[in-house]
Amino acid sequence: GLQAHLDCLAAWCKRNFLYVNAGKSWIMVFGRPRNIPDPLPRLTLDGKPVPYTTEHTYVGITINSAESNMFAQHCRNMTSAARRTGNALFSIERVIGSLPPVEGRMLYNARIDPYFISGADVILDISPTLVEDMYSVQLSLLRRLLSVNAQSMTAPLFTELGLLPLHFRRVTMALRLLRELLDSPESELAKLTLDVCVDLHSGKHGSWLGDIQWAIDHLPRPLGMDDVPEILKLPPDVRTYSAIQVDEMIKEVTHIAKTGLQLQIDSSYRTYLLWNRLEPLPPPNKPAHRVIFVRHYLRLRVTKHRKALTRLLLSDHPLALEQLHQENGRRQPYRFPDVRRADRYHPFVPRDERLCRLCGSSIESPEHAILLCEGDPDLVALR
């Protein structure tokens, strides 16, 4: 049994002048409670008892044997760490003022994103609640970075900062590991591990490959893309795939993310200022359409101007067109995660009745307030 294996390990270590510290060793028991013996047998290593534990952190990954998802506690720890790091990051605004989005994005990728993708190559999102908690923290931090409110649309947070939503980011990490395993030599232990995963997946047992497929199947997709594309369906024996085919899977996952983000923007009149826009590119390149890109206006040096323009484009401005907006429970033509503004202090106001507070003749939209309104002489003089 296990005790015999521990005795062999201790004997081998003695022959090779090695020492195993039983006090720094632990035993974890996995399985359903009714299948676990009670009391647990006493196991020793070199004559010293080895304690049992239900939770332990190994190479940065917390494993818990008391939960159905043994990585659930690790995901919760990483979510809390990302939130704490984000709060610490934004605390520098007390010293430097408002954190510029471009520099803040660099700090986000360097200090916060590692928590979101910690172990994502082997820990797949098979527990929706855990990844949604991470996703909500990501949204909160990106909103603070762009200086928009907590009810702002989610799609522009990613399209304006050049980031992928967390669901897709974590799946691509797992696919990249699969690509590396397929390219690794047959003699490496990692390749032998892939062989075991293939056997489990082929036999319809729980496995890493099965978790990858589950995570892909449950990615948020735009309406009209109900079925998973054939390119994203893993074969029973993934060893028949090449690294190039896995690269195509990664591109398809990224394409679905971009399609969903663009559809969310194009299907909402709140973001009509972002429709059909072209992004200025460094010369000699011509302006071109980019779904996910670090936008040029985020580099404005005057903080007030940058925040005002960002809120104007992202429909987070104080004008009536946005402030009197209320979704009123209507279904949207996409299934991307989003947070809708619902103001409980006033009834729903139709769009054509959100009139300018100064002239009262036209809808109080950004273009009307900035360029057309003549209801205030001071405003006209400022133009």
Task: Explain what you see.
- The chain has helices at residues 2-15, 72-90, 93-96, 101-116, 128-146, 155-161, 166-183, 189-202, 208-217, 243-266, 303-313, 320-323, 366-372, 377-382, and strands at residues 44-45, 48-49, 55-58, 61-64.
- With 383 residues, it is mainly alpha-helical.
- The strands form 2 sheets. It has a two-stranded antiparallel ribbon with strand order 1-2. A two-stranded antiparallel sheet has the order 3-4.
- α2 packs antiparallel against α4 (101-116), α2 (72-90) packs parallel to α5 and α6 packs across α10.
- The longest helix has 24 residues, at 243-266.
Break the fold down into its secondary structure elements and pairings.
Elements: H1 2-15, E1 44-45, E2 48-49, E3 55-58, E4 61-64, H2 72-90, H3 93-96, H4 101-116, H5 128-146, H6 155-161, H7 166-183, H8 189-202, H9 208-217, H10 243-266, H11 303-313, H12 320-323, H13 366-372, H14 377-382
Helix pairs in contact: 2-4, 2-5, 4-5, 6-10, 7-10
Task: Describe this structure in a few short sentences.
By secondary structure, the protein is mainly alpha-helical. The protein has helices at 2-15, 72-90, 93-96, 101-116, 128-146, 155-161, 166-183, 189-202, 208-217, 243-266, 303-313, 320-323, 366-372, 377-382, and strands at residues 44-45, 48-49, 55-58, 61-64.
Which shape, going by the Cα principal axes? Answer: elongated
Summed up, the helix count is: 14
Strand order of the largest sheet: 1-2
Major sheet attributes: 2 strands, antiparallel
Q: Report how far the terminal alpha carbons are from each other.
A: 85 Å
- Count the strands? 4
Q: Structural class of the helix and strand makeup? A: mainly alpha
In terms of DSSP E residues, the strand content is under 5%
Q: What's the mean pLDDT score?
A: 89
